[in-house]
């Protein structure tokens, strides 16, 4: 008979505590339920997280595969690892940067750390990144600029204390349902309210006391308008600004005329006034991918942080709270050596590089001097012939990256190693496939969006031909540098102890968190410099403020709005935006049996009426400058006129999206690109000039 065992849901970054039980015979998870003892979620766990943990619908990978011609064929682990190692060793000898490694916010801390150790310390490549850059890096850059450190200042404890909840460019009703329950509970009090800012009337917007529907992509300009109104109406918390911040005068000088900025954002000045008034009470400002995934995502996130600073909404019950998407995006940033060394150690500072090299037992000169160009930049390097090998771990770039057709072509031109638990679009293009264990089969830890570290545990063995992520990484690593890891099977606790040592004394100190402590307390927030304390609201201690910046003060930053990178025009008159559905997550490999089906494109009924001649039994084609995708058109008055909303989880959708990135964060501009509709039976209508041929609506 099997027993209930505590674990953490790995679906999203809320980090719900769960109890799970394995099947009595064979392999697999039998039942999953919320854990009432968990200090963060107290028994709550969304139905989708439970279902995806206990009974994922994806096609499991059960043995290593190698490509023979056009077909992936079963092989032994020894053969698969030998092929990978041979290719890696040859590439490293010629140029370590010819190897690219792409990790994931779905890995445990231990696996993410081991992958970064191998990529940076074993291979020595600058071309190492993770899919967390595709969703969170703009928020991270904004936090660093304002506070000198990554991660939100607030915690879940602040949600019931806030009077106003402003959700900006996010839909937690679909993406983070447990957190959203807390938000609704707090906003439902007589003296509280929920304000939602979004181009689309989402499930969250339907519940709002005030819904602000702005023009897609104008979040930065609306935030600047609100700030300007706050300044003009003496809504600034002068005591906080004067005593604890720098750069306010420069910010004020850069702000626009309220009427002009409101017009750009597609709202009236009364709306700006009402939105500004929301910040008069203790306010939690949440934002998500709608803000981050933009060519000006860092500036937009900065301006939201500025709003909190200017109105004194930094402290318990208030503050800027970015909503993380993937389960362990936070952990990947803390431990994976992606943009910083473990513990958020600065990547280029010599003393930190020396500490990392010493811990890893590798030459200092092997560590790359640059943290790399980001995932889109790595694809660019493939296109230029500068990357020969790409190894993906628990990520699906063929479906998840912008301009996906170009990504596919790029991966087909390199030696591709895909490590995953499920058969994804990326796996189909791999030269070698390494099957990994998944939830319920994996031991380690994770970090949720409020900095809580908790255990991920196994209640099922795996088949003999499937291995843990960290063991696969170590097996490859030992063939590259036999001193990098102990021989697998690795002890996750020993790997975590190495993480603890490297984070000791840093801004993300996890040295006081042990497996024994997690077994006793279930979840502990960093910074935790000893075994009896843990972090609360960051930068604040009993009324005293301390920010890890050069001056010790929080920093205001200026920004201007330069428009969309690909605005609509006569050739492409509609604007495509993307979002999450409640039923799926990430690229949907756990929730669909095969393929993604024909995507649904939601469009305002008035706009749909203009394209009636291009419909064939409800089906049409959405076409961008990069691709054309057949869709089922669904009239929906929650979508603004002139826009199309499509499901980010469908593998076809990112064939349309734009590979332009925010120059500071390297995060792609997923949320706005110009498209048009064309007849399903029409061959490609793109011409050299970009103007349409026959069968396409929008001709001049």
TrEMBL record:
Gene Ontology MF, one: molybdopterin cofactor binding
Pfam families membership: Molybdop_Fe4S4, Molybdopterin, Molydop_binding
UniProt entry keywords in alphabetical sequence: 4Fe-4S, Iron, Iron-sulfur, Metal-binding
Limits of the 4Fe-4S Mo/W bis-MGD-type domain: 2-56
Database matches in InterPro entries: Asp_de-COase-like_dom_sf, MoPterin_dinucl-bd_dom, Mopterin_OxRdtase, Mopterin_OxRdtase_4Fe-4S_dom, Nitr_red_NasA, Prok_molybdopt-oxidoreductase
Origin superkingdom: Archaea
Keyword flag Ribosomal protein: no
Segments of this protein annotated with the region Disordered: 678-700
Keyword 4Fe-4S: yes
The name this protein goes by in its record: Molybdopterin-dependent oxidoreductase
Biased composition regions of type Polar residues, renumbered to the chain: 679-688
SUPFAM superfamilies in alphabetical order: ADC-like, Formate dehydrogenase/DMSO reductase, domains 1-3
């Amino acid at each position: 008979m099997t027993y209930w065992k505590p674990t953490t849901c790995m679906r999203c970054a809320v980090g719900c505590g769960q109890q799970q039980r394995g099947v009595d015979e064979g392999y697999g998870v039998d039942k999953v339920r919320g854990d009432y003892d968990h200090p963060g979620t107290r028994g709550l766990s969304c139905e989708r997280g439970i279902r995806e943990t206990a009974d994922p619908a994806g096609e499991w990978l059960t043995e290593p595969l190698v490509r023979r011609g056009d077909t992936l064929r079963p092989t032994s682990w020894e053969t698969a690892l030998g092929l990978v190692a041979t290719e890696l060793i040859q590439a490293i000898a010629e140029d370590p940067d010819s190897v690219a490694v792409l990790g994931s916010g779905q890995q445990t801390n231990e696996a993410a750390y081991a992958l970064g150790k191998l990529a940076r310390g074993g291979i020595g490549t600058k071309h190492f990144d993770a899919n967390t850059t595709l969703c969170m890096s703009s928020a991270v850059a904004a936090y660093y600029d304002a506070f000198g450190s990554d991660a939100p200042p607030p915690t879940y404890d602040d949600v019931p204390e806030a009077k106003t909840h402003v959700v900006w460019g996010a839909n937690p009703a679909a993406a983070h349902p447990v957190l959203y329950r807390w938000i609704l509970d707090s906003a439902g009090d007589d003296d509280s309210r929920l304000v939602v800012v979004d181009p689309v009337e989402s499930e969250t917007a339907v519940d709002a006391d005030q819904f602000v529907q702005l023009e897609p992509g104008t979040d930065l300009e609306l935030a600047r308008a609100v700030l300007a109104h706050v300044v003009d109406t003496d809504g600034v918390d002068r005591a906080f600004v004067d005593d604890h911040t720098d750069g306010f005068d420069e910010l004020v000088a850069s702000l626009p005329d309220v009427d002009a900025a409101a017009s750009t954002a597609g709202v009236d000045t009364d709306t700006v006034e009402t939105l500004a008034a929301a910040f008069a009470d203790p306010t939690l400002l949440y934002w998500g991918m709608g803000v981050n995934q933009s060519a000006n995502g860092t500036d937009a996130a900065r301006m939201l942080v500025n709003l909190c600073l200017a109105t004194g909404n930094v402290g318990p019950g208030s503050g800027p709270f970015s909503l993380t998407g993937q389960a362990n995006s936070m952990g990947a940033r803390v431990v994976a050596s992606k943009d910083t060394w473990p513990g958020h150690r600065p990547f280029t500072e010599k003393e930190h590089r020396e500490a990392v090299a010493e811990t890893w037992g590798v030459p200092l000169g092997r560590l790359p001097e640059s943290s790399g160009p980001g995932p889109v930049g790595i694809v660019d390097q493939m296109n230029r012939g500068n990357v020969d090998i790409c190894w993906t771990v628990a990520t699906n770039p063929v479906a998840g990256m912008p301009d996906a057709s170009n990504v596919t072509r790029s991966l087909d031109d390199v030696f591709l190693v895909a490590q995953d638990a499920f058969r994804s679009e990326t796996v189909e293009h791999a030269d070698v496939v390494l099957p990994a264990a998944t939830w319920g089969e994996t031991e380690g830890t994770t970090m949720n969006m409020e900095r809580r570290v908790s255990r991920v545990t196994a209640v099922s063995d795996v088949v003999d031909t499937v291995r843990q992520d960290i063991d696969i990484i170590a097996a490859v690593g030992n063939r590259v540098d036999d001193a990098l890891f102990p021989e697998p099977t690795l002890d996750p606790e020993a790997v975590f102890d190495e993480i603890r040592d490297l984070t000791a004394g840093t801004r993300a100190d996890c040295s006081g968190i042990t497996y024994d402590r997690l077994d006793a307390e279930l979840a502990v927030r960093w910074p935790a410099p000893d075994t009896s304390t843990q972090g609360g609201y960051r930068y604040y201690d009993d009324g005293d403020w301390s920010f890890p910046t050069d001056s010790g003060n929080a920093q205001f930053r200026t920004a201007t709005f330069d428009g969309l990178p690909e605005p609509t025009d006569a050739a492409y008159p509609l604007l495509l935006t993307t979002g999450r559905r409640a039923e799926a997550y990430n690229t949907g490999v756990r929730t669909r049996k095969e393929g993604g089906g024909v995507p649904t494109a939601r469009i305002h009924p008035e706009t749909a009426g203009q394209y009636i001649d291009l419909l064939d039994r409800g089906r049409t084609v959405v076409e961008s400058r990069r691709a054309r995708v057949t869709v089922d058109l669904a009239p929906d008055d929650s979508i603004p006129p002139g826009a199309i909303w499509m499901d980010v989880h469908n593998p076809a959708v990112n064939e349309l999206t734009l590979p332009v990135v925010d120059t500071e964060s390297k995060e792609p501009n997923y949320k706005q690109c110009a498209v048009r509709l064309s007849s399903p039976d029409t061959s490609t209508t793109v011409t050299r000039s970009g103007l349409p041929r026959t069968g396409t609506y929008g001709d001049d």
